[in-house]
Design goal:
Layout (H helix, E strand, L loop, with lengths): L9 E10 L9 H11 L23 E14 L2 E10 L3 H15 L6 E4 L6 H11 L15 H4 L3 E3 H6 L9 H7 L14 H6 L4 H23 L9 E3 L1
């Protein structure tokens, strides 16, 4: 299937999420109780709900999006480059308004596709859920509730699903795939588990944005490896 996908028709995205508040005590009381119930399924016996609140960012009901980076391939002077634009705003609703508007315009061409790693399980539903929570209309490409799997996978690509080759048990991180495909990754990136701390304690959204942008390049390069095409070096990354 890889040869049928045009790299230039793909928008590669990555999102960064954090808990809606810096600590559980700041969460409205009803949601504190609901987080206690939710976290009881995965926390240890000696842990309190507050002890695992850092994990709230992975759930759309308890987290929020602080950055979405989106990039694609462009041709400049006969050379293939990679251009990325980030949507980041302390106001999540404004961030989603801006991103969804761009996405609607980009995907108005039926050939255009989205790509994310583990996008079907995380990025796509998270963006859709947070959009609805913020009272926003979904972009058509993400309005997939109740759609058949074959109606989704043609335009919402997922490099993890591609790597599974039908093996539903297997999860392989983007980091591991970059390593085995010899895709260079910057050594100065923060770890994904550090995002909430960098956001709430360091107040350094710009650092998170750069991390997110580099992840989209890693994702794009993974797709190029799947297709047997030359990868793009970090020096060829352009920021909008």
């Amino acid at each position: 299937m890889f040869e049928t996908i045009s790299s230039e028709d793909i928008l590669f995205i990555d999102i960064e999420t954090v808990p809606q508040h810096s600590e559980l005590s700041q969460v409205p009381e009803p949601l504190q109780h609901l987080w206690d119930k939710k976290s009881s399924h995965f926390r240890d016996e000696n842990q309190l709900a507050a002890d695992v609140y850092g994990r709230a960012g992975i759930y759309a009901e308890f987290g929020k999006i602080i950055c979405i980076s989106a990039g694609g391939f462009i041709q400049k002077n006969g050379e293939r480059l990679y251009k990325v634009k980030s949507f980041c705003d302390p106001d999540e609703k404004q961030l989603l308004l801006d991103f969804n508007d761009m996405l609607e315009k980009f995907t108005s061409n039926s050939k255009k596709k989205l790509c994310a790693h583990n996008g079907q399980e995380f990025d796509y539903p998270y963006i859709a859920r947070r959009s609805l929570i913020n009272g926003l209309k979904l972009p058509k490409i993400l309005d997939i509730s109740g759609a058949k799997p074959w109606e989704i996978k043609d335009r919402l690509l997922d490099t993890l699903q591609m790597w599974k080759f039908g093996d539903y048990k297997n999860y392989t991180s983007l980091e591991l795939l970059c390593a085995i495909f010899n895709i260079p990754t910057p050594k100065d990136d923060i770890d994904g588990s550090e995002v909430a701390n960098v956001y709430y304690q360091e107040n350094n959204l710009e650092r998170i944005v750069r991390y997110c942008e580099k992840d989209t390049l890693a994702l794009a390069n993974l797709m190029l490896r799947y297709k047997g095409e030359p990868i793009i070096l970090i020096e060829k990354l352009l920021r909008a």
